[in-house]
Design brief:
The complex is a heterodimer. Chain A is mostly helical. In chain A, 74% of the residues lie in helices and 0% in strands. In chain A, helix 1 runs antiparallel to helix 3, helix 3 packs antiparallel against helix 4 and helix 4 crosses helix 5. In chain B, helix 11 runs antiparallel to helix 13. Classes of the chains: A mainly alpha, B mainly alpha.
Chain lengths: 186, 489
């Protein structure tokens, strides 16, 4: 596995793809089983469909994030968010869902927090960061922060870094999901 | 003396064959170009008889020589009538060979130097430069001295001279002249300066090329001589070249990378018009990092030919939103039964980006479409009948293959575009189509498969009306560009 810190051409998505597809198909199977388990009547109600949509979407995101692993800030934040959401929505049974496992939980969150706090405090001295935040680029950067998971506590430099990787992974995800959908419907 | 001179001549013949006789060529060029100004009649005597013009390194030297200003050799040595490598005058050290008059410094006299005195010569050369010249100008020459010492160490056979090298090399660095230090650092460390690079390259080249010949000690005299001559002449030229903007270049790298020189006094001279405090340097580094990341992002985002940072950020934001929307749609498509569009539509924010090409195939597609078609047909009631037929046709085609659907549309003179773009074009080109625009606004951009065919058809309709209404061929062309964005996948 190559160093994912490098932004340019050397994005090895083969291993990402493989792990993503694995995790995603597994999740889909699980969701399908649940779908079959529910009664026929309630299966096609809008709320059920919506719930299932949510599950599928979070399954996709989670498998993508765990394929990336914890190397990237956005994947860590995404996994955290999904775990929290699932805990709220569906109770504790979804804890096993994310293949990344719970062992990373305590360490990763603290690590992320510390790292992000450090980064933002380092840049407080830098006038450039303020000018970016206040100027025309400022609110755009904040927009981007809202979009990219975990981007709230990042400075411009890392934000762009994470955005590039995130875009790559999203594009891969979309491609793979399309292919799966085509395969399933054919 | 006699055997040495014989060896000298042997060596000179050997050296003539090598291609790295830069000193010869540059000296000869010096002679040809500025013979009057240089007290190089001496050089003439010295070199013309013994050396032949080397075959290569023409372009580099020409560049160097082109930067020659009015040569003021006096500036170098601080004494008129002296050339840089003349160390005989200012040094109080009373070595016999060093006190020879300039005219006698022919190759025949060189072997008179015992090898140990070659080191002395180099150090005196350096000292001379320090004492005589103005700081920055002599820096180059002093740097040359350092290179010479390196070569000396090489000449001594490498390994054993390691200690000596470390002994000699730090010496110029600890000199009291602060300015000398800094400029020397600039020249030595300024690897980003072309002049310095070439200079280093040439010295190392000449040293390395002569390396096989360096094995034998007795040949080292000539090597030293070459090195000194080369270094001196190169230093002179470098001074002339450096008097201009090259000076700033050599100093700028140290200004911009102030942390690099590991010297006892790392004073950094700034570029013109820029501050030197570490904050601005850090800011500059940050800005460079951000710029390179933006460039990397530009490659990722399609259709990103914007040079402006702000518009680039806009593109990036739009693209990220678009991709996230696609993931949502794709995860929706797998559920089959996409009849329940309403909650989904309420969930998704009305974004026009993904309106065109997200057409996921699914078994429940037909169901969705029929259930949604009723709701949508009310909105499309104002459209022509032909348009609905086209709509259905396109929808059918989209189910099978996106490419064929696009071709069908293009055959009809239509194309797909995001609704936001469609509204922008229609408002810009024809203001009479307001009801159509309102329809587009009410219409959610994309929902499930059911929504899929209707939304692009709405945009198709708009395009056609705009085109037929105003003959806006330009709009069509630009629209095709927007549609072509989605082609890659």
């Amino acid at each position: 596995m190559m160093n994912p810190q490098r932004l340019s051409l050397s994005f090895s998505s083969t291993s990402y793809k493989y792990r993503f597809v694995q995790g995603f198909i597994r999740a889909l199977k699980r969701i399908n089983r649940q779908k079959l388990a529910t009664s026929l009547l309630s299966r096609s109600s809008p709320t059920e469909i919506y719930k299932r949509y949510l599950k599928v979407k979070s399954a996709a995101d989670a498998s993508m994030a765990s394929a990336v692993g914890l190397r990237r800030a956005w994947s860590r934040a995404l996994l955290q968010r999904i775990r929290d959401q699932e805990r709220i929505n569906f109770g504790n049974k979804y804890y096993k869902y994310c293949p990344a496992g719970t062992r990373i939980r305590g360490k990763s969150t603290t690590f992320t927090m510390i790292r992000n706090i450090k980064r933002s405090s380092d840049d407080r001295n830098c006038k450039d960061q303020e000018s970016i935040n206040n100027g025309a680029l400022g609110w755009k950067a904040n927009e981007l922060r809202k979009l990219v998971p975990g981007g709230e506590a990042m400075d411009m430099c890392n934000l762009l870094d994470e955005t590039a990787h995130y875009i790559k992974c999203l594009a891969t995800q979309v491609k793979l999901m399309k292919r799966i959908a085509d395969f399933a419907s054919a | 003396m006699q055997p040495c001179s014989r060896e000298m001549q042997g060596m000179s013949s050997l050296l003539n064959a090598s291609s790295s006789q830069i000193s010869l060529e540059d000296l000869q060029q010096q002679q040809s170009q500025s013979s009057s100004s240089i007290q190089g009649s001496q050089i003439h005597q010295i070199h013309a008889s013994h050396y032949e013009p080397p075959p290569s390194h023409d372009d580099f030297l020409e560049q160097m020589l082109s930067t020659l200003g009015p040569p003021s050799w006096a500036d170098l040595g601080g004494q008129p009538g002296k050339v840089p490598w003349d160390t005989t005058t200012t040094v109080p050290d009373g070595n016999g060979p060093n006190n020879k008059p300039r005219d006698d410094e022919t190759p025949d006299n060189v072997p008179a130097f015992p090898f140990d005195e070659s080191a002395n010569l180099a150090s005196k050369f350096r000292n001379h430069q320090i004492s005589g010249g103005c700081g920055s100008k002599s820096a180059a020459a002093a740097a040359a001295a350092m290179m010479l010492q390196h070569q000396l160490m090489l000449a001594r056979g490498g390994g054993a001279a390691g200690a000596g090298e470390t002994g000699l090399v730090p010496m110029p660095l600890s000199l009291s002249n602060g300015e000398f230090d800094r400029s020397q650092n600039d020249v030595v460390d300024g690897s980003s300066s072309d002049v310095t690079l070439r200079f280093k390259h040439c010295t190392m080249d000449s040293a390395l090329d002569l390396w096989p010949a360096l094995v034998r000690r007795r040949t080292s005299f000539t090597i030293l001589r070459h090195a000194i001559d080369f270094g001196g002449s190169m230093a002179a030229q470098q001074n002339y070249g450096a008097s201009g903007p090259a000076m700033n270049q050599t100093q700028a790298p140290s200004g911009s990378s102030g942390a690099q020189p590991a010297q006892p006094r790392p004073r950094v001279r700034a570029r013109r018009g820029q501050a030197t405090d570490p904050h601005s340097i850090a800011e500059r580094l940050r800005r460079e990092r951000i710029a390179e990341r933006m460039k990397a992002l530009q490659e990722l985002v399609p259709n990103a030919n914007k040079t402006d940072k702000a518009s680039m950020l806009d593109e990036i934001i739009d693209y990220v939103k678009f991709l996230q929307l696609q993931v949502k749609v794709l995860s929706m498509s797998r559920l089959g039964g996409a009849a329940a569009v309403a909650p989904l539509v309420a969930d998704m924010s009305p974004e026009g980006n993904g309106g065109d090409c997200i057409q996921a195939n699914s078994n429940g597609g037909t169901h969705g479409r029929t259930s949604n078609g009723n709701t949508n047909n009310n909105q499309t009631a104002s459209s022509n009948d032909t348009m609905t037929v086209t709509e259905h046709q396109v929808a059918k085609l989209m189910e099978e293959d996106m490419g064929s659907a696009m071709q069908y549309l293009q055959g009809k003179g239509l194309c797909l575009m995001p609704i936001s773009l469609a509204t922008a074009i229609s408002t810009a080109t024809c203001h009479t189509r307001n009801p159509m625009i309102n329809n587009n606004h009410h219409h959610p951009p994309i929902g499930s498969n059911g929504e899929g065919p209707s939304s692009p058809s709405m945009s198709v309709l708009t395009v056609q009306s705009a085109t037929t209404g105003n003959g806006a061929a330009a709009a069509d062309g630009s629209v095709k560009d927007a549609a072509s964005v989605s082609q890659p996948w």
